[in-house]
Each structure stands twice: as structure tokens, then as C-alpha cells.
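assembly run, all chains below
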Amino acid sequence: MIESLVPSGSTFAGDIDGLFVLICVIVGVFFFATLGMFLWMLVRFRARDGVPAQYITGNEPHLKTWITTPHAIIILCDVLLIVGALRVWYNVKQHMPEDVEVIGVVGQQWAWTFVHAGPDGKIDTSDDIAVIDEMHVQVDKEYVFRLESVDVLHSFSVPTWRLKQDAVPGRVILGWFEATLTGEFGIQCAEMCGIGHGIMGARLFVETAEEHAAWMAQAGGTSS
Amino acid sequence: MNAPAHGHDHVHDDGGHHHHHEMTFVEKYIFPTDHKYIGKQYLLTGMLMAVFGGFFAYAFRMQLAWPGSDIPLFGHMSPAEYNAAVTNHGTIMIFWVAMPVLIAAFGNFLIPLMVGADDMVFPRLNRLSYQIFLVSAIVIVASLFVPGGGFGGAWTAYPPLSGDSAYNLTPLGSSLWLVAVALEFVAFLVGGINFIVTAMNARAPGMKWTDVPMVVWMICIASILFMASVGPLMAGAVMLLFDQTLHTGFFDPRQGGDPILWQHLFWFFGHPEVYVVLLPATGMVAEVVAVHSRKKLFGYKTILFTAVGTGVLSFFVWAHHQFIAGIDPRMANIFTITTVLISIPIAEMMFLYIATLYGGSIRFTTPMLWALGFIFAFLIGGVTGIPLGASGADIYLHDSYFVIAHFHFTFFPIAFIGTFTGLTHWFPKMFGRMMNETLGKIHFWGTIIAVHCLFLPMFVLGLAGHHRRIYDYTNFPELSTPFLTNIGIFATVSLLVLLAFQFVFVFNFFYSMFKGPVAEANPWKAGSLEWQCPSPPPHGNFGEHLPTVYRGPYEYSVPGRDKDYWPQSEPA
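ok done. output:
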């Protein structure tokens, strides 16, 4: 459903889309069943001459079952939803890959700085490539991002990856991603950060290994 | 009026009441202690504030549809003005429209009448509540016109942006905004105490707790939720004000403070607050559904338990607003579970309302249309909350237009559909005249269709990646495709239609107040106590003898009786 509007470009994007579809199916069944019941009653029990309303308290067992049965089904569906949500959440936010390349993301009013590890594959070394408002990553490769903010709250949002994480000044927040789709995509700030919030975007370039190496050679050359 | 046969002489010690004293204009309208006039003061102030809130919505939706163009009645909109407009739209609609109208106006007007009292237990405290509220309304409006402009850090006012004028650029606007919100909390604390005490202590003789009309219960539960949740935010508001003015650094990481702490304080209040305004609206819907389908409420006690259950659970869900805010990710698991579980009582409440229609004789009067419209729209709002409460899906949907669409499908039914339900139903009692049904139905259909055309497209925008609070999407190529731009324009045009139909209501409201046909005491043939006194009720409500209650408020269509209603105060 979401992928028809925004391409699905990370390993977990499909999981999040699938979870959304699961939720839509479950709540959709309830929504349309309830709505159908509701509209049927409006037609069936509209005021008609000579037909008085019935005296019903809600304690009649044969009627009460119409409440208690859906009630029980909702509890079952809730368990299903919670399990689905927690599985996706664990994969995206709680589990953290080890020994992978780190990319630094720093938010400030109103720009993003991306600190790419240089040819040595390590961040915080002399060959780091820091670029404003441009993020370059290699496709099919796991990265950990290290998210910081220097002033107010920002939120690092990459719709194509279904990834969003607030940046909090004074904290270092870690997350991970693995892009599966090459191309150029949008990055936005998703947390109100002042008058420039509406222009705080960046571009994401997901490249093949060769393209990425070429970019690194060119960018590293210009920055050193 | 059906006075008790045995003339029960029950007098309340309510201090400051003189039933036979002729009141001056100032005593009656400017500084009243009569709960009905205080209720009307809240109602009219809330409606006036809705004009501000609605105007902001108009202005920023115009900017979104046609970025950078001159907006009629507003002019060119700068990013700072855009942020101030969205911030104050949210703040005003929740704190100065939904709260005063749903809780204060209807609570004040209905509680003493429905429990059979001659006034609130603390009438002067009641007057104080409105006066503080009025000051808070003046302060929030003034905050828009100070140098630097109104506060633009979103209604959630997350620090450090809200705490430091070097970041938000609105030194006066942000402090006045905070003062206004804090004053508003004081006003509702004072008012809420009055509601709870009145419903507990001033009920008519014979009124058991199962004889209390549902809307009174709902307003009392809402007041208890408000009292229990507002303390932490009140403390937070003072701390943030100190951060702004004295540079104390409670929420400033540069001084060892924690910005996330504010989020916890805000949402610990902010989520129960949703139910604070929801419950009175559902209470009014319950009354209207019962009266206009001539049916007893289906499972009175169960409805009550679902309300209490929702209220208790609402204290344990706040961090679902913070899944991706930088909290420990393990916390999200707990809050997903509590959040999804809240679907159980609230869905059950909706089922019970729909079940009330079963076997009824449904009259499609204007108030009934609104009540049914509430159920319809709130169902959409309810089901679309599930993907947001499920942590995994919220990663993508958080702070997107999906959220906006979802909570407008809860807040619009609450604040407006709920209000129209109550207002069209109790208008005869409030003003002693009937509203025009034809205009009422035109207003209903225009509003209900337009509001769905306004907010349903926003689900699509949100799924397509539109983030909130962006003043111009043309800065983001993926978000300004012709398809998405046209959806935005469609939503804006729907808003214009929605606003245009409100003039029908305003005309009907004021015209009927003075020129409508005179209402009888009980035009809807309802059983609860407020319909057993004259329309409008005199000062002191029930005259010399307060009513005695013999049965529940929903004894409609009882077999073997001539009339299909049975007033609570009619002796058996």
C-alpha cells in the first residue's frame, strides 16, 4: 500500500509496509463490519408510525453476545497486532548490527551534515568526508548512523527507507539501515525546529560499490 | 414541571444565593454566579476563540495549497507566521475551544440541571474559573500581536526550541503562550473541582449513582482525569517559563537539562487530555442517541465501565507520542501494548452506542444526525489510531499527515460534532427557543461531507511521506508532485466549503436565540431532570421544591405505559 506511493528502499521498509497492511486488514474488517451494522440499524429501526421502540436494557443474553463476542475478537486481534508491531520494532530500533561502517548525521538549524567514513571505513579519522545536505551510501550494505543535534530537536526522516529518528541535543542516538534501491531520494526534518523547518531537507544518494568508490575518490580529493 | 407529590423541601447550603432578589444587568450577565450564565459565557467565549482557530486553519491551508500567494484577509505568509498559525491553531482549538465548550459550557449548564440541584456547590468559585479563563484567552490572543510575533514552536512546545528565544526568535510570544496555557489549566482545575463536588453532593433526593445521566458521569470522569494529569505539566510549564525568562536550564542540555523530560511531562498530561475532551462529547452523544431513538442506553453500567477503563488506561500510554523521540527503544514495547489495549474499552463503548439503536424508533432530528455523525467520524478516527499506536508502523507514520488526519478525525468529532450534538439538543433549554431544523440539516450535511473531504485526503498525503508543519512543500521534490499538490488543493477547497457552512450555523444560532419559535419545557419528550423545569430554567432552576428522583434517566418505551418516556421525577 505504502510502496505504491513511496518506493520501498531498505531491508526493513517491506516489514513496515507489511505491518501496515496487516493492521489495515484487521481494523478494516472491524470498521466495515461495524459500519455495516450501524447503517443497517439506521434503516431498520427508523421511526415508523405505530411501531414503538422496544424496551431493552442491555442485559439480555442473546443481545449481549453481540458485544461480548466482538470484544473477545478484539483482544485476539490486539495480541496479533502487538506481536507484529514489536517484531518490526525490535528489528528496526532495538537490534543493532555490529562491526559495520558508521555514518555521522548531525542536525542543526536548518541543515544536515553527513560525516562519511573515508577510504579507511572508519569515522572520526582524518579522511572523513563531511558533506552538508548530501548523504552518500552504498547499496546492499549495512550502516550504523550516529545521530546528533547541535541546537534544537530535529528528526532524521528518510521516507524511502521508512526510517525516522529524532535527533536530541546532548545525546548520541544510534540506528541502522541497509539500502536496497539505488538512486536519489529525499531526506527531511520531521520535527518542528524553527522558522527554517520547512526548508530543512537533504538529498540521499544510494550508489553501487563502483559509483560509491568514484564519489569517494572525487569528494575525498576535493575535501583534503 | 413534575414537582414531587410529597413536596420534599430540600435546601442546599450553597452560599451566595438569593432566589427572590432582582439581579442587576451586571450581576446577571457580567459577574454571574448562576451556573447557566457561566456556562453560556464559556460557550460564547469558546465559539469566539473558534473563529481565531478556524481563521488560522484557513490561512495556513491557503498557504499550503498556493504557496507564496497573497491570502485574502491575511496577505503574504512568512515561515514564522506559518509556524505561529499552526501552533496557535492547535493550542486554541484544544485549550480554548474544546475544553471550554465541552467541559465548562456543557458541564456548567447541564450538571446542576441534570442532577436536580439549584446551582453549583461553589458558585463563586465557578465565576472565578471563568474569569481566569477569560484572562487566559486574552493573553493567548495578545501573544499573537507582540513584537516578534506569536509562538511558533508547535502546540507541543518541545524545548530547546521553545525554551530559548535564540532558537525560536519569539521571546515575548513564547512566554505569553506559556502563561496563557498555565492560566487556562488553573481555570479548569477550579471548574473541575466544582463539577465533581456538585455531582457527588448535590444530587436530588433519590438519585442513585445508576440514575445519574451519562453525560454527567463523563464530565466528572473527565474532570478527575484532568486534575490527576495536569499537575506534572503545570510544574513543567513553570520550569519552561523559568528556562525562557531566567535561563535556568531545566530542559537545556547545555546546562545539564533534559529536553525529553518536557516531552514526558507534556504527554503525561497530553494523552489523558484527549480523553478529557472525548468523554464529555461521548456523554452528550449517549444522551442524544437514547432520547432520539426512544431507547434505554444499551448497558448503562458497561458504558460507564468502558469510560473509567479508558480513563485509567490513558495514564499509561503517553510515550506512544515519543516512540522515535530518543527514548530507550525498549520502552516502546510497553507503550505499544497499553496503547493497543485502549482499543478494547473505546471500541466497546462505540458498540454499545450502536447497540442502543437496536430496536429503537430513530428520529433523524438535527441533534440525532450530529450524534450519528459523531459515531461515523469517530470510528474512522479510532481505527486509524491503531497503526500509530503500533510502534513498528509508527516509525514511518510519526509526525506525518497521517497523524494529522487521524487526530482530526478524533478531535473534529469531539470538539465540533460533539458540540453541535449538544448545542442543537439543549438549545431549547438554554435559550427557551427552538433552532430551525431545515437550516440545521443543511449545516449538518455541508459540514459532515466537507470535513471528510478535508481530512480523508490527508491520510494519502501522510502515506506519501508528507511531514507536518512544513510551510512550503515545493522545497521537497518528492512531496510536490502534481498528484500530491492536487490532493492538497482539494483539501483546502474542502476547508473553504466547511468554513462557509459554518455561517449557516452562526445565523441559525443567533436568529433562533431571539426569533425562533418558543420552546416548551420538554420538546424532545426526554426523561432526565433538566427537561422537567421551564425552558429556559429560572434562577434556582426548579423553583421552591427540588425534584425527587424515582428512576433512571433512560426509561423510554417502557411496556404498558401510554407515553414512551418516563420522567425521572414522576412518582411511580
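Residues 13-94 of chain A form one domain.

The helical segments of chain A are 13-44, 61-94, 209-223.

not gonna interpret more than that til we talk
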